[in-house]
Amino acid sequence: MISRVIGFEKGFLLSNGNYFETYEVMLPKLNKFDLAVKNLAVSINPIDTKLRQSGKGIPQPHVLGFDSVGIVTQLGSQVENIEIGDRVLFAGTTRRFGSYSESQVVDSRIVAKLPNKISTDEAAALPLTFITAYEMLFEKMGLIAGEKQNKGTLFIINGAGGVGSIAIQLAKWAGLNVIATASRKESKEWVERMGADLVIDHHKNLTKQLNKLGYQSIPNILILHSTDHYFEEMCDLLEPFGHLGSIVGSNKDLDLAKLKNKSGSFDWEYMFAKTDYDFDVASQGKILELLVQLLQERKIKSTLTKIIPGFSPEVFYQAHQIVEENQMIGKLVIHY
């Protein structure tokens, strides 16, 4: 099967011009677990912009895109509980052509069916950030993945980002008290709308602000921006036997010895680890089934804030420009 895709030959900076191009590629033959999907909408994540700059770790031509909602058009021989014509959502993998494509092949174990009542665009904004937040909170930090099943506090640095916006909502659903950082008026309002109990300013001293609110230590801390900048201060703030987690790589070595005498844990989360290493892949489909359930029950809100229509190199270039400005609140979705 041939599909039109938007891709590029080698990594590039937006300041050097638009090197996205339209290609026609032959999609791989379906294996027993695969689906072919006609994409309807895709969201743009920060990892898209990083991979576009480096051009590393993805097939050529580089076809990015992870979050997607699409219609199933073909089934592998061992696909269960999914039929041709079903609408599905998924976050994809770095190992195959992504969703900047009219059609793509995806492992059925990492998709979930999407009921008719849920909007295509609102759903397309969520898979990658929901899986990331879920894996961090419930698989890495050891919290219980159930409604009101936990007590205690979660502190999130960069609460207005894509993962932060979902982590706030998931943590509140799970029963936690949530403190998040935001600096601009709009981002503070957004974080409050997502459900944060308290909001503090990451441009000011975090420890002093938390102490003033009555917090001397915190059991669960999520660094979602500038890990090396916040690491030492968060080690000091972490409660004994607590969990300090991050999704953002560090530019310098982190001194994990700082956590030793507290029996503190440091948790990395990378959503593609499971599909990169073929580890517990089907769990991501189950996580997305929970997302669909929480959307239906209105216990999770979509983080969609902007839609751009179209399927062209110009549309994707514009979308990457908006995301790279770092002023974006919520998620941007391109609707094909």
Automatic annotation (TrEMBL):
Keywords: Metal-binding, Oxidoreductase, Zinc
Annotated protein name in UniProt: Zinc-type alcohol dehydrogenase-like protein
Keyword NAD: no
SMART domains: PKS_ER
Organism: Enterococcus xiangfangensis
Limits of the Enoyl reductase (ER) domain: 17-334
UniProt record similarity statement: Belongs to the zinc-containing alcohol dehydrogenase family. Quinone oxidoreductase subfamily.
Bilayer-crossing regions: none
InterPro entries according to UniProt: ADH-like_C, ADH-like_N, ADH_Zn_typ-1, ER, GroES-like_sf, Lipid_raft_assoc_Zn_ADH, NAD(P)-bd_dom_sf
